[in-house]
Design a protein that fits this description.
The structure holds two protein chains of two kinds.
Chain A lengths: L7 H9 L3 H22 L4 H17 L10 H19 L16 H7 L6 H20 L2 H12 L4 H7 L4 H24 L17
Chain B lengths: L2 H13 L1 H9 L7 H37 L2 H12 L9 E15 L6 E3 L5 E3 L3 E13 L4 E4 L3 E7 L2 E6 L1 E5 L11 E4 L2 E5 L3 E7 L2 E8 L1 E6 L2 E6 L2 E5 L5 E5 L8 H5 L11 H12 L2 E3 L4 H4 L19 H4 L5 E6 L2 E6 L3
Parallel strand pairs in B: 7-9, 17-19
Antiparallel strand pairs in B: 1-2, 1-3, 1-4, 4-5, 4-6, 5-8, 6-7, 8-11, 9-10, 10-13, 11-12, 12-15, 13-14, 15-16, 18-19
Helix pairs in contact in B: 3-4
Classes of the chains: A mainly alpha, B alpha+beta.
């Protein structure tokens, strides 16, 4: 897959012209994070999330010619995904539980300080919540930002290796990582201070009313 | 990267609590491969339908205008050669066969319905082309030349994508580089996109091999993206290991390609154009130690027809008409005056 930064408007034009490589770049660049987005809102139901993501991306393909580039493609896909989830819940005649999935912590340092050194269920839950917010923040960054941060700080790749993947020079990769870290901090801080999700389906079988 | 810059960046990272959070969080989880495959199949199908119907609408609009103007025939011909991939409902033209030797077949979605290919036949998007005891060369509407070796099979997935399902395929862009018409050869282990070039992709028992004869290609696979230049070959195995080494641009490695060369349309071409074609098809550089090509009228128009023979054999027919002859030495086609 081409990891280099993408001009999304140009990518969309190429997809509409029948460019298979462009389609694959679009698909692989969005399907995983869209799945994470859907699964988090469907109580972790992977089968349901698969169905929603498939419908979302098919709708997006049909309506690709209407995309104006005013927001990121991922943001646009999430909007479609939210509508599909709402429609599913309406069809199942279920009321969504309104759940605040973020703690009201405006600073990242607070998140770190809240982690207890004690190995107990509460600290495990805190770590899981932090991991979830970190992943949501990464997913909402431009694809090459999120990828570069994950490669460097989670998978341990060197700057030279990252530069190679991005088809750029190490100096440019360094600059990108610096900008990406800033963007991540801002995204994480935003998540920590807002109700990130307003719809959550209860983690029960589909078709069974709550 | 100098040491001072490295140390500065490291200090910034140490101070960045965001980095620590990412390290605590671990990698993002990806979809399981079977789910991914199901989603991909459905979305890809939707995309193909979308692209095909869009082109049919464009074609119908053009025909409507042409009928109004009373020039239907001329417009449809132009559309096929320039807009490409537009055709009457139910048929999306994609390519035309230039050479078919032995058993070569085109099949539609269902394998039960297939028909033998002949020179001049048109190929459709969505269909498969298969060779058993035969080889085939066809030209895409974009101008690219595509050739299949024996026991090979491709599926014509889209206007700019060919899926290699078995054996080997060779692509020649003719030296063109149009970013809107780059062709990708897709295999189970990755895709190869041309960047104005000649190259071969072959499925091996465990892996895929790419050979570049001219220009550059980009090879997309699970581990990333690699570019290779002329004279290089790369083998990717099932475990993702990539081995790269050199390969000559002429010789036995390209034998099957030479035997699948469509007949050169000599009539109306200049000597310069003929020699350019000859160099591309043989991999030989053109050597002119006597300065014959400077003295000769390289813009002279050639006449006649050539049979579908190996490219290097055509020199015996063409060069004497220009009082020239050729011999091969170390990958160079040396041009000298006739009679020497």
């Amino acid at each position: 897959m081409n990891w280099t930064p993408i001009d999304e408007s140009r990518l969309i034009r190429r997809i509409l012209k029948g460019d298979e490589a462009a389609f694959e770049t679009f698909y692989k660049g969005h399907v995983h994070r869209l799945f994470r987005f859907a699964a988090a809102r469907l109580g972790g139901d992977a089968d349901w999330a698969e169905d929603v993501v498939q419908r979302t991306m098919c709708i997006a393909i049909k309506k690709l010619h209407t995309f104006r580039g005013e927001a990121a493609v991922y943001t646009w896909l999430c909007t479609i995904c939210r509508r599909e989830i709402s429609a599913d819940l309406s069809r199942l005649d279920r009321q969504p539980r309104k759940v605040a999935l973020t703690e009201d912590e405006p600073e990242i340092r607070s998140a770190l300080e809240s982690l207890s050194v004690v190995d107990d269920p509460e600290s495990h839950a805190q770590r899981r919540e932090i991991a979830r917010k970190v992943h949501v923040a990464l997913d909402h960054l431009p694809t090459h930002y999120g990828n570069a941060l994950e490669w460097k700080y989670i998978l341990g790749l060197s700057v030279a290796e990252i530069a190679d993947r991005l088809a750029t020079k190490p100096k440019a990769a360094e600059s990108l990582l610096t900008r990406a870290r800033v963007a991540f901090r801002e995204a994480y801080a935003t998540l920590s201070s807002t109700d990130e999700m307003s719809l959550v389906a209860a983690p029960i079988d589909r078709g069974v009313q709550s | 990267m100098n040491e001072e810059t490295t140390n500065s960046m490291s200090r910034q990272e140490d101070d960045d609590s965001g980095v620590r959070l990412m390290q605590i969080a671990g990698p993002r989880k990806e979809i399981e491969s079977d789910r991914d495959a199901r989603i991909h199949t459905a979305v890809h199908k939707q995309w193909l339908l979308r692209v095909t119907s869009r082109r049919r609408m464009m074609w119908r609009s053009a025909i409507g205008l042409a009928a109004a103007a009373g020039v239907v025939g001329a417009i449809t011909l132009t559309l096929w050669y320039t807009e490409a991939q537009t055709a009457p409902e139910g048929l999306v033209a994609f390519a035309q066969v230039e050479l078919a030797s032995g058993d070569v077949w085109q099949s539609e979605g269902s394998a039960d319905r297939r028909f033998r290919l002949r020179k001049g036949d048109r190929l459709e998007i969505g269909n498969a082309v298969v060779t058993t005891d035969g080889r085939v060369a066809f030209r895409l509407a974009s101008g690219h030349s595509v050739r299949l070796d024996r026991d090979s099979g491709v599926r014509l997935a889209a206007a700019n994508e060919v899926i290699l399902e078995q054996g080997a395929v060779y692509l020649d862009s003719g030296g063109m580089l149009d970013e809107d018409q780059l062709i990708t050869i897709r295999t189970p282990l990755g895709g190869v996109t041309e960047i104005g070039t000649q190259f071969e992709v072959r499925l091996l028992e465990e892996g895929v091999r790419v050979r570049v004869r001219e220009g550059r290609i980009a090879f997309f696979h699970d581990s990333g993206r690699d570019e290779f230049e002329a004279g290089r070959q790369a083998r990717l195995d099932g475990s993702g290991r990539l081995v790269v080494d050199d390969i000559p641009r002429f010789g036995i490695e390209w034998e099957w390609v030479a035997e699948t060369t469509p007949a050169y349309q000599l009539e109306g071409q200049t000597l310069k154009q003929y020699l350019t074609w000859l160099s591309r098809e043989t991999g030989f550089k053109i050597g002119d130690p006597e300065g014959r090509l400077e003295g000769a009228d390289v813009e002279a128009i050639l006449h006649g027809q050539l049979p579908a023979i190996r490219p290097e054999q055509t020199t015996e027919f063409v060069l004497p008409t220009c009082e020239l002859q050729a011999s091969v030495s170390n990958g160079v086609l040396v041009i000298r005056g006739a009679g020497k």
